[in-house]
Amino acid sequence: MTAELVRGQNHTLPQTRLEIRVSAGTPVVAGATLGDENGTVRGTEWIAHPGSPQLPGLEVSRQAAADHRLAVDLDALPAQVHRVTVLLALPTGVGGPVRFGAVASPFVAVTGLDGTEIATFTLTGLDTESAVAALELYRRQGAWKVRAVGQGYAGGLDAMLADQGLPRAAELARSIQDAVTRAMARSVAPPPPRAPDADRVAPGAGAPGPVPHPDGRRPAPQPPEPLAEPATPPTATTGGPINYAHPRRQSTAPPPPPPTAPPAEPGRPAQPVAGDATGWSMDERLYNQIWGMFEDLARTTAAYRSAVDFAESRMDQELDRTLSDPRSRIGGAGDRAREQARAKRDELTARAREALDRDLAQLAAESAVVEPALPAAFAGWDNPVWHAYRVPMEIPMALRIGDLHLPENPGLHIPLLVRLPLERGMWIDSGRTTSDAAALMDSARLRTLAMESAVAHAARLLAVYPADEFSVHVIDPAGSAAGALAPLVRSGALAGPPASGAGGVSSVLARLTRRVDLVQMAIRAGAADSLPPDLDTGEQLLIVNDFPHGFDDRAVTQLRYLADEGPSVGVHLMMVADREDASAYGPVLDPLWRSLLRVTPVADDHLADPWVGHAWTYEPPRMPPGSRVLEEVLAKVAAARRPRRP
Q1: Which of 26, 37, 45 is nearest to 99 (CA)?
Q2: What pLDDT, in 10s, does the model give residues 170-220?
Q3: What sign for the dihedral angle of Cα 426, 430, 432, 437?
Q4: Helices 482-491 and 629-640 meet at what angle, rounded to 10?
Q5: DSSP string, 143-154
Q6: N or C: which end of the chain has fewer CB within 10 A?
Q7: What one-character-per-residue DSSP string does 1-22 give?
Q8: DSSP run (H or E) holding 462
Q9: What are the residues whose beta carbons fall under 8 Å from the beta carbon of 342, sequence distance 6 or more?
Q10: Spatial distance between the Cα atoms of 99 and 107, rounded to a whole number of angstroms
Q11: Each residue of 545-578: pLDDT tens digit?
């Protein structure tokens, strides 16, 4: 079954010998770069392009064409290669289009050698970009996957190659375009138009392609896995006239729900509706709608900041021109020129702010409708849905781990969702040097807040999994987190009492590393039914408090092993730690920190968005003052769990 991907989505590749087929409405240049485990392209010998079309395990076209077939043999790639990024660019100097926004959306398909489609991706939403990183094949836990990227570059091929880390990118881009120009006479004509994307969707497909909304409302795309890291909106374009209009979301999911609100009157915004996005279920529609709101907020804020920067730059240029003429400094001419320049700056800034306020008001209205309709997995602790909580029968598609906002409107919060099962662990940073809010707080209080945050995250994970399909273990070497852990301990929702002392640390780590080893061996051998009967095959979460206190070198090695290998077999790590406390281990722990999703117990703007350059402020989940919702939910979870021991 073909997986029709959206920007940021990934899919496992069932084979290693593949073709990557590119179809566009105009001749394009196709190439690919090889990256190591850090994504670094080590030199020009790691890029395949029309001037050098063959690398071990990779071959691309020698000319610009509207239809490409790239051959990939993942087993033949050098051992150091962990990533293959497919690049597309418009040829320059040949009289063709200069931006992807002027041509039909390129379509990329990953197929087997027999032509069977494995995954497809339509690159929608491009505008002034003349080069784009279409998709990437990457190796994770020994298996290869494909991810839809769709990151465009208004600066063209040289900007894209520079972003890949290649030295002398401009020179390399010119050599590629020269090779393309020499071969343009052999360019292939555009293929016949493809069938509409809606015709390509088969019932039950994993993520169907773009489908227009029947009443013109804005359907929302799925994000990449985030923050599942919230880095998900497309690159904001720069240069040229600024578009103050509210960005339209591109539909990249299954057919939308029937309209539940009357069409808006001409000139007035549509009435927001919860679930007004594409998806097979209401949860999927709400998930897509939330990430559509995130993308809208990112884009409209990027447009506003770009407009303000443009206004300031224009004022500076006009003042420079005025002051460079000595005659303008005599009399009131200079003062009038400065006033006029500032007036133009203020006018442009006011127009940008007006557009931003309009978009923010629309998003705020949508948020006010969506928030009360969220299921428990997506809802905040203050949502009434928790008062009717029941232990679920199946795992939801995502989990809320906090909120995000930008300084232009701190009151507009977008839920931060991560996909389930978790693909990486979490690090709750208890350090005081991470933000201004943390620096002003007492160290002991900050550590307590960090552990309380870990308990809240663990409770949500327990609450959204079916009974007996998720277990939580705690390592608290010095017993310093007894107060914060009380809700978990009193409810009986923990798999066992918190482990303390060197013996407790060693016992828990040994048990979980054994589970990882056994499950991995069973999977590789295709003998999952041979696992020991006492092995808990449900998902496991290990909470570690006050790391590295109580950990010797062996325990640290086991912890790193769980962080690297555990998620693929259902063992997840949640660290409550201050990185400075672990500095004595030196760089040996750097891979550990990088493998975890860092969140904070206080608000912090540490989540960088590489697409548009924003620094998102993360707000941890908060319990309403005086609420006992956490204890009530944990009591229901504990009551639904079957006894694990006599």
Answers
A1: 26
A2: 888 888 888 777 665 333 333 334 333 333 322 233 332 322 232 333 433
A3: positive
A4: 40
A5: EEEEEEEEEEET
A6: C
A7: --EEE-TT-EEE-S-SEEEEEE
A8: helix 443-464
A9: 315
A10: 16
A11: 988 888 888 999 999 999 999 998 999 999 999 9
